[in-house]
Amino acid sequence: MHPAIWAAVYKRQLIQKNNITFSETPTASYQELPFFADAYSAAESIYIIPKAMYNYRIESANKFSSTNALDERIFYRFENHRKAKEVYINRGIWHRVKYPELQREFITLNNLALRINNRLRYRFYNEIHRYFADISEDEAHKFLPRNFCRSFKLIKKGSYSKWLLQYALAYIMVIRILKIFGLTDLLRWMYLKRKDSIGSPL
Asked: Is residue 83 part of a domain?
């Protein structure tokens, strides 16, 4: 279940009854995360249709889209992840959704760290380190695929240079080479296919 607002149709009664609104993040960056948490945890029933009903272009030409934002806006992601977690805690279901949410959060944040420019990457790395400070390496193995566990372990140690040299640098170079040759869409497609093969951690 994708947290993007376009990935579902919501009953207006559900939204109004539970007073569900978007967070006021500047430039509309990642506001769908707490909205998703609020709407899905408030719903008495959810129907999943195993059929493509909506076509969405992954690489939008809109430079203002938060999906493509690799600037200061990406730091709002942490704020909205925290807001989503608060929703689950307040509704008393965090223990049920904890591992799927942590998996979604870490994989997304890790991949953003590989794509952003060098000027922001160190600061972004430190934000990830702080965000997952209360999660141990042993617990991470319960919800992360093996390759991401390697990155998690290096981030937990808090050494940016080791994480960069032992994990991130190879991926960063591949991403840059694919971008030069115009193969970024292929990379995204391969990642999404692999992501679909990762089962639910519950």
From this structure: no
